[in-house]
Amino acid sequence: MMSPDATPSPDLSLALADGTRVPAVGLGTWKIDRAETPELVHAAIACGYRHIDCACDYGNETEVGGGIHRALTEGLVRRDELWITSKLWNTYHHPDHVRAACERSLHDLGLDYLDLYLIHFPIPQAYIPIEERYPPGWFVDPDVPSPRMELAPVAVSETWGAMEALVEAGLVRQIGVSNFNVALIRDLLSHATINPAMLQVERHPYLAQAKLLRFCDEQGIGVTGFSPLGAPSYVPLGMATAADSAMTETVVQDAAHHLDVTPAQVLLRWAVQRGCAVIPKTRRVERLRENLALDDFALSEAQMNALDLLDRNHRFNDPGVFCETGFNTFCPIFE
């Protein structure tokens, strides 16, 4: 990991174990309305984004693909300049279904390959055929009076073997995991032929995950933080309130004032300076530019340490909570 007062490389990129560089600031596409998605993705690429994070479960990969296709057609960017991530949904963990799920994402995105494909959650669920319902969501049958999730007995090792086959087939360049803890990653490393290139987890000053970051650094696994601004993504879902925002913290406000940047930029810069990629989401073009503009300032060691002290181990995106409240099924994956 970078030292607390280190400055990222001028192109704001994160180096993976094999030397591949990932743009450190990407566009997250979770909860972006399908009608808005093509224009937003195109606008992001036009203003300099080269990293787009998407997933089957977000339900807008066709629209993400439309924005990418327009940018490619207009010559704004070449395909090899983009880093496109997608994710394997829970219902496709059985090795018989992994390739079909990946191919569906490729079809919807209009791409020949993915730069990175992640296991979205360590929560294998009962298979739902693509032709029956797509994206399949969390319920095995959403039309019954009291719908629930149905888990499936699929080992991570089985799923990972099928993920490795995607690399061998040339469908994806790198594979990784999301929402995994240290114990699961350690188990995965014990049998993997291809080690995970990236871990994607919730990460912001209220959930710094320092031990997890240190472990990944020692194992040569890159880290991408989702929800890097913390609460804002969860307020509309009733999973947070405006008062939960780290952007209102005094240390964040003071750093923003001193550096003449926004509180959001302070939080994003904190993450990048700790050696992580970030995938903030926004629907506003001016915010796209703001979130990307992190390369002309740096936080001091004192400012970095002050932000570290905000850590409360507070998780907004916790299946142990939202699966029970939203999907009638207790499904913890974090202690």
Structural class: alpha/beta
Gyration radius over CA: 19 Å
Low-confidence stretches: 1-10
What's the name of the CATH homologous superfamily? Answer: NADP-dependent oxidoreductase domain
Mean pLDDT: 94
Number of helices: 11
Largest sheet: 8 strands, parallel
Order of helices and strands: EEEHEHEHEHEHEHEHHEHHH
Number of strands: 10
Determine the N-to-C terminus distance.
25 Å
> How many domains would you count in the coordinates?
1
Percent of residues in helices comes to 25-40%
Strands side by side in the biggest sheet: 3-4-5-6-7-8-9-10
Q: Which shape, going by the Cα principal axes?
A: globular
* CATH uppermost class: Alpha Beta
In percent terms, what proportion of residues is strand? 5-15%
CATH architecture: Alpha-Beta Barrel
- Stated plainly, the CATH topology is called TIM Barrel
